[in-house]
Amino acid sequence: EKVGYTSAAEAAAEVMSLETELAATHLTATQRRDPELRYNPFSLEGLGQATPGFNWSVFFDRIGKSDPGEKLIVDTPGALELSCRLLGSPDERLRPYLVWKVVDSLAPHLPRAFVEDNFDLYSRTLSGT
Questions:
Q1: Per residue in 67-82, pLDDT tens?
Q2: 3-class DSSP state of 2
Q3: Cβ-contact 19, 13 below 8 angstroms
Q4: How is the chain split among helix, strand and coil, in percent rounded to 5?
Q5: Which domain holds residue 14?
Q6: What is the value of pTM for the model shown?
Q7: Is the predicted pLDDT of residue 9 greater than 90, yes or no?
Q8: How many domains does the chain have?
């Protein structure tokens, strides 16, 4: 509600829905121990085909790596594919999700009410102290 939403519960439900969908694309803890499941080589062209709508050449150029090499290793292709698809979609959950990510990362630098809410969430609710 402090960032312009009339219902914090509705915004939180949208964030949770999107985070649940993203989490489903990741490997389980057991699967992550299998190096073959985490070794997914792509060419730049193959990466572009797996994530249509995202221009990897521009991305690598902008980060100063205009030649990323012949082989790009992607840890979780499903997560990357979903993320790229979401970025190019009108999914209504994106706005509250991105607002949450920005506020969460900047909470220590925001007004005291944000700092206290952040502490309450992470130190009391999630950690149980």
A1: 898 899 999 999 999 9
A2: coil
A3: no
A4: 65, 5, 35
A5: 1-34+91-129
A6: 0.70
A7: no
A8: 1
